[in-house]
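2024-03-11 09:14:02 INFO worker-7 job=invfold-0412 stage=load source=structure_tokens
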């Protein structure tokens, strides 16, 4: 049996970070242990047949592949990993750096960092080529957590679960939890063969199929371990076990097998994998998610106008791609005196006669028919009305009805020498001339015309890659870095600019894009009943202050329907749209009441934690039951309760609140949709109306 010893440990908040070392192989494992767990973690050095999970792994071209039938299913535990041995470790304030070395002259630098006493950790891995020859990487991981399930020395049957969030267009953040047995990860009779669940996303829409998130639960102790990847390109996560009884979670860039990625590192050069956030908690799934969100909050970089989370009006669901100066200014006039601060002109402002908004991107010249006095005149007028003007771009692509589609084709991405998409070309964001064109057409255009808000949309994926000498996956990685550069450039030239991140709704809802933008469009489910379900689920993946949610209002909506729509938008950043000019006085007064109520919710939305409770059907397109999201202020004295009732509700909904004597301060709801009350720490809703919504503010 290999000898395993504790190399080092450090405690951050209620989490112990432990580094274990295999003396014979020289490999090092990173483990997170919550102090509040109901049982002590087993000592790895005392477990028979314990097998460490290397905290950093690479696959070097030419070294042998994964054994145990693993090739094609996983690139972990390969011949390269076996050659990296522990060299040194430095414990600094708020950082641990561990160096592994390969006798051929390669190093892996693993860094774990944190802020103050907050137990959420940023992991980064750097490969260093100290040899005299180039070397090709076919895989590099951003993170690896080992020893998951450290509370039992048996096979851990029916106690380990993997939590993920699935996603598709207009159906983001669908939470699923699978047992290890359901994923077919039971250990074989001899322990031979690789058992791995590898999942992820390929392309430049990082939230497509899955969000870059995973959590592992020990159901018997209630302990969770979790990770979010901060990367807007192809990624992968693996939940696996090998010969050992426990499990591991690892991931990063999608590798050569999964994402067509490889990269040559010249002598003396380095390469750093995308960052990941990791944490653990013994206080439940929502508590784990809140910890991961703490790192997102620490990275916020938003303009001053965002501090009070103002209301947005976007005219997309008003004009549906046909905005005009007359329509926009009529909306601005109607909105005077409301809490709306941003008025956004969406797609279509650039289309010429005979073209469509979704095919004319690329030239970015305002239509003289739609805006006869130019965009600056409209932006100036919007500011006179008291609003910050915003405008829509999809600047990373060219549509086939634009002049740029053919004129600048040599500056667009290709695969095998052919544009990667036949009817939507992608600018090569590492091409100097492409960057110069976008500088003039987008960055400087905003400055010239006085826009203070940009909605950046992105409605197609590059696919698995584009031409690059190393690999298509490396071409794609560099394109993602180019996107980051464009977002940064927008703010460099326009310092107070508010950036909205949109990608056919929520296809870019991941931490690296959150850090570059003020807020993100939650979904393209603009008018659908599942809006509150998607919005509430996203509280576990992103800060509600950055989660822009649509409230599309129409004259045909009765107050109950309006209450459902408006209360849903209060789950995050309130974005009003629709036919506000056609509403009657009663409807418009109700909409204004909702916006004023939202303003009073801002403190708890901005700083707080969320807990989601659902008693509903699994079908989002045929909702039954109800959901309740509790948002608690940071000081614990105030709650915001978001209650959404679907079809076939019970006659009474009872819900247990945190300990205390909670009193209702105020409530937003349509008349006749139920009666709210509290008794101690219990909330009750009597006679809830189907397909209704309400928001209640409570104090203790």
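2024-03-11 09:14:09 INFO worker-7 stage=emit residues=700
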């Amino acid at each position: 049996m290999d000898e395993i010893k504790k190399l080092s440990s450090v405690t951050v908040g209620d989490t112990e970070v432990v580094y274990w070392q295999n003396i014979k192989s020289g490999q090092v494992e990173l483990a997170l242990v919550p102090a509040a767990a109901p049982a002590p973690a087993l000592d790895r050095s005392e477990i028979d047949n314990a097998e460490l999970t290397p905290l950093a792994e690479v696959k070097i071209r030419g070294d042998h592949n994964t054994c145990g039938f693993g090739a094609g299913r996983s690139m972990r535990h390969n011949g390269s990993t076996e050659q990296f041995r522990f060299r040194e470790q430095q414990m600094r304030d708020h950082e641990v750096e561990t160096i592994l070395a390969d006798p051929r002259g390669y190093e892996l630098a693993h860094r774990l960092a944190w802020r103050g006493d907050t137990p959420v950790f940023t992991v980064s891995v750097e490969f260093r080529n100290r040899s005299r020859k180039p070397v090709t990487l076919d895989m590099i991981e951003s993170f690896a957590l080992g020893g998951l399930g450290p509370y039992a020395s048996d096979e851990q049957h029916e106690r380990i679960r993997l939590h993920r969030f699935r996603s598709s267009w207009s159906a983001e953040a669908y939470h699923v939890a699978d047992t290890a047995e359901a994923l077919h990860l039971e250990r074989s009779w001899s322990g031979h063969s690789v058992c791995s669940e590898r999942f992820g996303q390929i392309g430049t829409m990082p939230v497509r199929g899955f969000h870059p998130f995973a959590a592992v639960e020990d159901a018997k102790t209630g302990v969770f371990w979790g990770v979010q990847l901060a990367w807007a390109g192809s990624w992968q996560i693996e939940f696996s076990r090998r010969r050992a009884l426990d499990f591991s979670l690892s991931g990063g860039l999608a590798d050569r097998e999964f994402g067509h990625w490889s990269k040559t590192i010249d002598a003396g050069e380095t390469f750093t994998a995308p960052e990941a956030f990791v944490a653990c908690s013994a206080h439940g799934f929502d508590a784990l998610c809140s910890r991961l969100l703490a790192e997102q909050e620490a990275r916020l970089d938003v303009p001053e106008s965002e501090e009070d989370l103002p209301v947005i009006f976007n005219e997309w669901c008003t004009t549906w791609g046909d905005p005009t100066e007359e329509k926009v200014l009529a909306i601005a006039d109607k909105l005077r005196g409301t809490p709306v601060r941003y008025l956004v002109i969406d797609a279509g402002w650039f289309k010429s006669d005979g073209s469509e908004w979704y095919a004319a991107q690329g030239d970015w010249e305002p239509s003289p028919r739609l805006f006869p006095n130019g965009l600056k005149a409209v932006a100036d007028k919007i500011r006179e009305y008291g609003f910050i003007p915003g405008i829509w771009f999809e600047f990373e692509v060219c549509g086939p009805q634009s002049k740029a589609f053919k004129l600048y084709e040599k500056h667009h991405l290709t695969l095998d020498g052919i544009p990667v998409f036949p009817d939507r070309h992608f600018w090569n964001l590492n091409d100097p001339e492409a960057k110069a064109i976008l500088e003039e057409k987008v960055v400087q255009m905003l400055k010239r015309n006085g826009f203070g808000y940009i909605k950046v949309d992105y409605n197609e994926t590059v696919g698995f890659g584009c031409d690059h000498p190393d690999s298509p996956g490396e071409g794609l990685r560099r394109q993602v870095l180019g996107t980051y550069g464009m977002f940064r450039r927008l703010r460099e030239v326009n310092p107070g600019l508010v950036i909205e991140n949109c990608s056919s709704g929520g296809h870019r809802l991941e931490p690296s894009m959150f850090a570059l933008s003020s807020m993100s469009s939650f979904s393209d489910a603009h008018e659908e009943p599942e809006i509150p379900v998607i919005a509430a689920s996203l509280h576990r993946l992103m800060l509600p202050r950055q989660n822009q949610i649509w409230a599309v209002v129409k004259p045909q909506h009765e107050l109950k329907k309006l209450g459902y729509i408006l209360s849903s938008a209060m789950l995050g950043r309130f974005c009003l749209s629709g036919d506000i000019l056609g509403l009657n006085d009663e409807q418009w007064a109700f909409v204004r009441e909702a916006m004023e109520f939202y303003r009073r919710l801002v403190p708890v939305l901005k700083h707080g934690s969320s807990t989601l409770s659902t008693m509903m059907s699994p079908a989002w397109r045929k909702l039954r039951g109800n959901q309740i999201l509790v948002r608690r202020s940071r000081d614990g004295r105030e709650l915001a309760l978001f209650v959404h009732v679907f079809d076939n509700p019970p006659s009474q909904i009872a819900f247990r609140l945190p300990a205390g004597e909670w009193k209702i301060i105020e409530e937003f709801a349509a008349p006749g949709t139920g009666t709210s009350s509290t008794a101690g720490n219990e909330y009750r809703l009597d006679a809830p109306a189907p397909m209704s919504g309400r928001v209640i503010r409570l104090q203790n």
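2024-03-11 09:14:09 INFO worker-7 stage=report msg="The chain has a mean pLDDT of 96."
2024-03-11 09:14:10 INFO worker-7 job finished
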